[in-house]
UniProtKB/TrEMBL annotation:
Organism: Methylocapsa polymorpha
Source organism, top-level taxon: Bacteria
Matching InterPro entries: Molybdate_resp_trans_reg, WH-like_DNA-bd_sf, WH_DNA-bd_sf
Name of protein: LysR family transcriptional regulator
Coiled-coil intervals, chain numbering: none
PANTHER family: DNA-BINDING TRANSCRIPTIONAL DUAL REGULATOR MODE (PTHR30432:SF1), TRANSCRIPTIONAL REGULATOR MODE (PTHR30432)
Length: 134
């Protein structure tokens, strides 16, 4: 594959919190989509996830922290959910952690990327693992 078409390696952050909660890229995507759609059901449609999964994720986020991340307004016309001030701060803090981590890890990630075998097929890896376990 030509170098110009290769996707850059990146670091993702999953915060595993001491109270048993977590916050990661999926939560961030859900919050961003709720912000745009102004509803959990709208976010579930946009993300192509079940409403139940989205609602349970919002509920878990709201119970993980002392302050709610998403405020819901059942039956409200023009939107049934919005991101709270605390939710906006949580997103900003998470993105700050992502930036700092990416900057700190850049040299190491670049070295790992330089050692990649570009002919690797991840689908073949899954097939081999399935065959080996059979």
């Amino acid at each position: 594959m030509p170098k110009s078409k290769r996707q850059a390696a990146y670091v993702t952050i999953q915060l595993n919190l001491p109270n048993g909660g977590s916050f990661g890229p999926e939560d961030l995507a859900l919050i961003d989509t709720i912000r745009i759609e102004r509803s959990i059901i709208g976010a579930s449609r946009a993300l192509q996830l079940s409403y139940r999964k989205c609602w349970l994720s919002v509920d878990a986020l709201n119970r993980t922290f002392e302050s709610p991340v998403v405020a819901t307004f059942p039956g409200r016309r023009g939107g049934g959910a919005e991101i709270t001030q605390f939710g906006e701060r949580l997103v900003a803090l998470y993105r700050s952690i992502e930036r700092h981590t990416s900057n700190s890890a850049k040299k190491s990630v670049d070295e790992i990327t330089a050692s990649l075998d570009w002919s690797f097929d991840p689908k073949a890896r899954v097939s081999a693992a399935a065959r080996d376990s059979a």
